[in-house]
Amino acid sequence: MNREALSRLAAHLLEWLWPIFKNSWQYLAAVATFPLFRAFRHRRYASKSISVGLPFNLGSWTYDTTPSDRIVAWKLYVQLTTRKAALPFDETSDVISEVYDSLFALFAVTRELLLELPPHDFEREDGVVPLLLRVTNYGLRPHLTRWQADYRAWWEASLKDDNNRGKSPQEVQRQYPRFKELVSDLKQTNTELSKLADDLLMIARARKQKRPRRAKVAPLPPTPEPAHEEPPKADYRIEPNALIVVLESDRATQRGKGPKPQPGARLAFRTKYDTQEFVRAGESEGFTFEGKKFIGDA
Prior knowledge:
By secondary structure, the chain is α+β, with helices and mostly antiparallel strands. The chain has 10 helices and 6 strands.
């Protein structure tokens, strides 16, 4: 098939597909943007490994949180902190039957929150679902199984007793034969549920931390090394025999009358004493000498 035939075939194919693309642009745009949305959502709500100490002496729990975990944890945290179930029991004002009503409602709320989760969350062994099931079944349920049925039966009978007419609910409940034992266990349950609320808040706030951006710091310019400073050069240099003095500086050559010598010129003296007198006279005028040790105390 030559190029012209291929071009005609491509043109017919494009002409046939264009109405489909034209009417389905919204669908195509959605398909194209879905991977971008999913990548953004994964980056924004990525899981984070977190460890919590479970209440009721059930050990610790470490797992990766998901957005669903955090939502359920937050909702249940609000339920716990606004109910009597997780508040310290006050013997002077609280009523045990009302606390049990709150605990029973907490079971229902937890069940409803878990049912809102998709099925695959129940398959995760390290998710919030097994955590809540473990706490409710092995932590909260034992207290209710031990006390609730017996106490409620006694409570309903006591309310019908004519001897309790005119008494407050707090006065009536103190007559329960095992009142102190029940209240002690109930207070412990309230404390453990308060710990659960703290764990749920930690889960709700867990979120993968974004990597901190590296600060763009401009490189510092190299620090210039200090120039090596040589000691100032003396105006004159005395040779070891102490009879020759060499002119080193320009200002030394300008001293005196007559033709001006060049640096390096040499002055000869007969004795060390003469050299010493020359040095004394020069220092009085501000000139410096190197090798004065050679003239000694002549």
